[in-house]
């Protein structure tokens, strides 16, 4: 741990809009509340589809699903939900929407802001899901240059 009295100076927390990510944001808020001088960075990462991928899916889905095809729209919603949690806690943060693989985005931002702590949620996937999709929290744990807190529900 870095900083005064053993507190974290810079906290990075990631959200993907899931309940576990919301728990991670709440945990980061609790940590920041205990160290008001700490910086908190909230990020969401997304894979933006190519126009060809969007058009292909658009033809296959009903019109009401069209906004979901735009990853930046979903990222905006994720960040807005996190902003509401941070605001409700009476805190401030810097928000980042990053077009990249989630684990890489988290690691890169943590390096950029010289984070002392990364807070991520655990999706709780079984071994089959982890083998197919990988685990963001596992990759972050293995490659982070700072402490990592994985929040489980």
Description of the molecule:
The chain has 153 residues and is of the alpha/beta class. It has one domain (4-135): Rossmann fold, CATH 3.40.50.620. The protein has 6 helices and 5 strands, in the order βαβααβαβααβ. Strands 3-2-1-4-5 form a 5-stranded parallel β-sheet, sandwiched between helices. β1 (10-14), α1 (19-33) and β2 form a beta-alpha-beta unit. α4 runs parallel beside α6. The two termini are 24 Å apart.
How does the SSE layout of this entry go?
Elements: E1 10-14, H1 19-33, E2 39-46, H2 51-60, H3 71-88, E3 94-99, H4 102-112, E4 117-121, H5 127-133, H6 136-143, E5 147-151
Parallel strand pairs: 1-2, 1-4, 2-3, 4-5
Helix pairs in contact: 4-6
Outline of the structure:
The protein has 153 residues and is α/β, with parallel strands linked by helices.
């Amino acid at each position: 741990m870095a900083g005064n009295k053993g507190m974290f100076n810079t906290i990075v927390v990631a959200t993907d809009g899931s309940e576990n990510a919301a728990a991670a944001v709440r945990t980061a808020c609790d940590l920041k509340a205990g160290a008001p001088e700490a910086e908190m960075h909230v990020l969401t990462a997304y894979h933006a589809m190519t126009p060809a991928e969007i058009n292909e899916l658009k033809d296959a889905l009903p019109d009401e699903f069209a906004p979901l095809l735009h990853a930046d729209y979903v990222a905006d919603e994720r960040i807005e939900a996190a902003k509401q949690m941070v605001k409700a806690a009476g805190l401030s943060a810097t928000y980042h929407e990053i077009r990249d693989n989630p684990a890489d985005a988290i690691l890169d931002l943590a390096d950029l802001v010289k984070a002392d702590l990364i807070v991520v949620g655990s999706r709780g996937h079984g071994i089959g899901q982890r083998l197919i999709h990988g685990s963001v929290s596992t990759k972050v744990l293995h490659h982070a240059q700072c402490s990592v807190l994985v929040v489980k529900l």
